[in-house]
Write a structure and sequence with these properties.
Number of strands: 13
Number of domains: 2
CATH class of the largest domain: Mainly Beta
CATH topology of the largest domain: Immunoglobulin-like
Largest sheet: 5 strands, antiparallel
Helix content: 10-25%
Order of helices and strands: HEEEEEEEEEEEEE
Distance between the termini: 97 Å
Radius of gyration: 30 Å
Structural class: mainly beta
């Protein structure tokens, strides 16, 4: 009789433990808050163009920041970020431009006097920069290009690859965003001389 009682008691305890585990698991599942990732509100792109002529020889860069959210973002602007250029063959040569309101060329909704920005859906903030092939250390990289000797009187460089990337933060409460890193092929061209062909890499 005692053995039968012990067997029933053990079975009862097993049922209690299983039931307690179930309710503990169930309550744990119910206590998890729903996932609420912050929405992506801004997008950034970086474009580059090599401009050369009689009085111009520079790499021009444009950073566009677009409000892709469906509401106006309004706050005091806290614009920070940078445009970075790295020469892949000689990575010690690099140039960094610091983003600031002074470099904005299109800024609908931004008040330069107060620093307030009302960033409407679909609007763009644009920043422009021009690189004269001088590094952050004020070193000109022109002598390190590999020039084609077939055109006397005109320096035409073989193609080089530059790594370009930008980072931007517009508001203090919105995270920094980054452009997709891109490789830009550049053929530096200096001066003019008749009878010399221009490379088509630019």
């Amino acid at each position: 009789m005692m053995k039968q009682f012990d067997c029933v008691a053990r079975q009862y305890m097993v049922l209690v433990i299983v039931a307690a585990s179930f309710f503990a698991f169930d309550s744990c599942e119910e206590s998890l808050p729903p996932r609420n990732d912050p929405p992506k509100v801004l997008a950034v792109s970086l474009s580059a163009y090599y401009a050369y002529g009689y009085n111009t020889n520079e790499l021009r860069l444009t950073v566009d920041v677009v409000n892709i959210y469906d509401e106006t973002l309004a706050d005091t602007a806290a614009i920070t970020g940078a445009v970075e250029i790295v020469w892949t063959r000689l990575p010690q040569y690099r140039k960094t431009f610091v983003l600031s309101p002074k470099s904005m060329v299109y800024y609908h909704g931004f008040n330069p006097s107060t620093g307030e920005l009302a960033f409407d859906p679909g609007d763009t903030l644009r920043f422009n920069y021009a690189w004269d092939f001088t590094t952050d250390d004020s070193v000109s990289i022109l002598d390190d290009f590999q020039y084609n000797p077939s055109c006397p009187g005109r320096r035409i460089a073989n193609s080089e690859i530059l790594l370009l990337q930008s980072s931007v933060r517009i508001f203090s409460k919105v995270a920094t965003i980054y452009s997709v890193p891109q490789l830009f092929k550049l053929c530096y061209i200096e001066g003019y001389a008749f009878g010399c062909s221009v490379p088509d890499c630019n």
